[in-house]
Design brief:
The protein is of the alpha+beta class. The chain is 32% helix and 11% strand. It has a domain of 51 residues. It has a 3-stranded antiparallel β-sheet with strand order 1-3-2. Strand 2 and strand 3 form a beta hairpin. Helix 1 crosses helix 2. The chain starts with 39 loop residues before the first strand and ends with a helix. The mean pLDDT is 79.
């Protein structure tokens, strides 16, 4: 017998997900980095540039081995002075 629209039937449906082949995670593309030369570096950027840890850069600054510009609590290392520092250390 065919059920009419007025009759309710208790039918459960299950959805089957097609897992198929595994897919690589979606990676958002980063915007291209502009090749803009920075004249001043942060302490973290300086540490990465020199290949040392941040406390080492802070020690260079404290011992006045590395000149910095300070504005309130903001500290920046001039790129030109950093290059001089590296050249002096290598000689």
């Amino acid at each position: 017998m065919i059920a009419s629209n007025a009759e309710t039937t208790n039918v459960t449906t299950t959805a089957v997900l097609d897992m198929g082949t595994p897919q690589a995670p979606i990676i958002q593309e980063q915007p291209p980095i502009k090749n803009k030369a920075k004249n001043f570096l942060t302490i973290t950027e300086t540490a990465e540039y020199l290949g040392v840890c941040v406390p080492t850069v802070r020690r260079y600054i404290r011992n006045k081995e590395l000149p910095v510009f300070k504005y309130h609590r903001i500290v920046r290392i001039p790129k030109a002075e950093l290059d001089v520092f590296v050249n002096n250390r290598m000689n």
